[in-house]
Amino acid sequence: MSFLENYAFYIGAFGLILIGLYVILVKHNLIKVIIGLAVLDTGVNLFLISVGYITEGTAPIFSGSETDGQQMVDPVPQALVLTAIVIGVAVLALALSLAIRLYHHYGTLNLREIREQKW
Amino acid sequence: MVDPVLLIAVPLALAFAIPALSLFSKRAAKFVPPIALSFNLVLSLLLLPRVLESPVIVSIGGWQPPFCINLVVGPVGILFSVIIAFVGLLVSIYAVDYIKERATEKYHTLYLLLLTGATGVVLTGDIFNLFVFFEILCISSYALVAYTGEKAGIESAVKYLIQGAVGSSLLLIGIGLLYGLFGTLNMADIAQQIESVSPISVFVPMVLIITGLGVEAAIFPLNAWLPDAHSSAPSSISAILSGIAIEVGLYAVVRVLFTIFGASSILLFLAFLGILTLLIGEMCAFSQNNIKRMLAYSSIGQIGLIVFALAMATSYAVTGGLFQLVSHTLSKALLFLAVGYMIYRTGSLDISALEGIGKTMPLTSLGFAIGAFSLVGLPPFTGFPSKFLIVRAALATKESLFIVLIGLALLGTVIEGAYFFRVVQVLYFKAGKNNPERKEAPVAALIPIVVFMILIIAIGMYPKLITGVLNSAASELLNRMDYIKSVLG
Amino acid sequence: MRKTISIILLSIVAVGMSLSLAKVPFGQPKTKVGQRYIDKGVEETGAVNIVTSVVVSYRGFDTLGEVTVLFIAATGLGAVLKIGKREAAAIEPASFVLRTGCRVLFPLILVFGSYIFIHGHLTPGGGFQGGAIVASAFVLIYLGCRERRISETASTTLESLGGLVFVVAGLIGLAVGGYFLLNFVPKGQPYSLLSAGIIPVIYIAIGFKVGSELAGIIDNLIEEST
What we know:
The structure holds three protein chains of three kinds. Chain A has a single domain (2-53, 71-106), classed as Orthogonal Bundle (Helix Hairpins), CATH 1.10.287. Chain A contains three helices and no strands. Chain A has helices at 2-26, 30-51, 75-106. Chain B is mainly α. Chain B has helices spanning 6-24, 32-53, 75-98, 104-123, 127-145, 151-182, 187-193, 199-217, 226-232, 235-261, 267-286, 291-312, 315-346, 357-360, 362-376, 383-396, 400-429, 443-461, 464-478, 480-488; strands at 56-60, 69-73. Chain B has a two-stranded antiparallel ribbon. Chain C is built from eight helices and no strands.
C-alpha cells in the first residue's frame, strides 16, 4: 500500500503516456490521433512535475510569513513543464490546422484512405 | 571580441520584426533572411580562428555553469554554424524569386526561424535547451512542408508532424529521467556524473533520447516520414531539409551519445543500422520515377553512410563522417535547387519529363550533373575525398566486421551511381522537344547554383581547405574529458 | 494485427520505463541545482516567486525559445489556413443572455489576466498564464458577439513588439554587463511591485505577445470554419 501511495503519480503519468501512444498507433481517425497526442503530452508533463516533488514540501514562493523556513519543492521541473506545455499547445494548434486543410482536400479524415503518396 | 550569443539573438530579433515590417511594405520581407544570414556567416568566420584554439564558453544571464544555460562553441559547433549560415544564405537568395504566391512574409519568417533553431541546437551546452531549439527546428519544418497548400504537401506534413511529435515526447521523457537521476540539466555536469550510476539505469534514458532525436535524424526505422516530406515541400525547403535539418538532428544524436553517455556498447548496433539505412535508401531510390522522391531516398542512403562512419568512433572515421556530412549538404542542396527550376519549367515531377533539358537549361543541368557526381564520389568533386576517408578508416580498424560493412556500403555506391547516371543520361542524351530555345533559370537562382558548383570543385581538389577544422571537430567529439573540463573548470 | 504489435511494443516500453523509475525515488530531494535556486533566488534576482526567477532569469534562454515556438505555430497556422477570401456567411446571433454576459465579463477577464502577468514575480502565475487568460476573454467575445473580429494590424504589431522587447532586453544586458539577459536594472525591495529588475518588464511583454497570438490563432480557426 505504501508502494502505491508513493508511486501513484508515476503510475498515473505512465498510464497516460501508454494510453496516448496506444491511441496514436492504433486509431485511424486523424482527430483521435491528435487527441492521443494531447494525452501523451499531458502524461509527459505530469511525469516531469512528479520528478520534482519533495515530501512535505510547499510551493517555492516566499510570502513573508512564518512558513518561510520549511522545505520547498524543486522549482526547476515546474519551469521545464511551463515550456513543455506551451510547445505542446503549439504542435496541437498546427496539427488541427493541417487536419482542417486535409478534410478540405480529401473529404474524409480516415488515415487509411489518405494515401495519395505511393511507394 | 564578439559574443557568440549574437549568432542566435540577431536572427531571432529580425525574425520577430518581419511581421511588423511587412505591414509597411510587402516586398521587404524577402530581403531580411539574406541580411540576417550574411551577418551570421561573417560572425562565424570571425570566431573561427579563436574557437580552433580553445572552445568559447558563454554563460547566459550572468550566472556560472551549471546553474545557468551555457553555449559551448567548439570546432564542431562553429563548423555547423558556418555551414548553416552559408547554405541558408544561398537558398534564401534562390527563394527571392522562387517563392511568389501566397503570404510570402510568412515563408521568410519560418525560414529564418528554422535556421535559427538549427544554429541553437549546434551551439548549446544544456540538454533542455537542446530540446527547445530542436522543437523550433522541427515545428518550422512542419509548417514549411505544408506551405504550398496542395494535397501532397498537407498529407506529408500531417504524417511528419505526428511522428515528430511522438519523437519529441519520448525525448522529453528521457530528459526527465536524466534530471531525476542526476539533478542537473547541464551536459557537462551530467557527463561528469554518469559514471556514478550503474549502466542499466542510464540505458533507458539513452534509448529514449536517441529514439526521439533519431526521428529527425532519419535513422531507420524512424524515417518513414522523409520521402513524403522532402518530395512534397517547395524545392528550396527540400534543399534545407535534406541539407541542414537531418544533419543537425544527426549532430544532436552524436553529441548526446559521445559527450553525455560516452557509450560504446550501442555503437556497434548503430553501425549496423547505418548500413541497413544506406542499402534500403539506395535500393528504393533506384526504383523511383519521381525525381524529388528519388533525391529524398538518396538522402536517407547518405545519412546511413554518415551514421556508419560516425559509429566507428575512431578519429579517422569521425573526420570522414563529418567530411561526408559537409559534402552531402553542399551536393544535395545543389541538386534540389537545380531540380526546382527544372520542375517549374516542365511542370511535372517525372524523370522522363526532363528529356533534353540539358540543351534548354544548360547551366542548371550542369549543376545537377556536378551535384550527382559529387554524391556518388567521383574524383574532382568533394564526395571523393570524403568517401575515400571513410573507406580508409574502415580498413584501418582491421576488424572483419567493418570490412564487410564497408563492402556493402560500396555496393550501395554502385547502385547510387546507376540511378544518377540514368537521370544525367535523360538530361543530356535524350532528344527533347523539337525546338529547344535556351530559357535558363532566373539570375537569383543561378547565383547559388554557380557558387555551390565552384565550392564543390574547390573542396574536391583541395580538401586541405577544411580538413583542419574537421580534425579538431573530430577530436572534440571523441574527447569528453576535455569538454567537461572546459565547461566546469 | 496492428493492435497486437502495438500492445507488445508498449509493454516493452512500460517495462523499460518502470525499471528506470525504480532508481528515481519519489519525494526525495535530489538536486543541488534546485536547492541553490531556492536558497539564493531572492537575493540574486529579487523575485519572491522562485519559479519566475528560474523561468526568466536563470533559464531565460529557454523562455526565449518557447516564445519563438508559439510565434512559429501562429505564423504556420496563418500560412496554412489563409487560402484566400471567402464570402462571409450569414451568422446567427447569439442569445440575449450570452451577448450581455460576454460584454460584462470581457473587461473583468482582461483585468484579471493583466493582474496575473503584471504580478508574475510576486504571486503564482506569469506571462504565459496571464496571456492565456487574456486570450480566453477574446474567445468569449467570439462566442457572444459573433460578428466582431480582432483587427489584424493590432494583433501583428503587439506580437512583434512583445518578442522584440524580450530580445532587445537581452541585448541591452549584453551591452551593459557582458552577459545576454543580464538583470541590469536595480533590484529594489522584495515583495513590492517594482522589484526584480527586468523580470516584470519581460513578463509583461510575454503576456501581451501570448495573448495576442492565441487570440489570433482562434481568430484564424473561426474564420476557416464559417
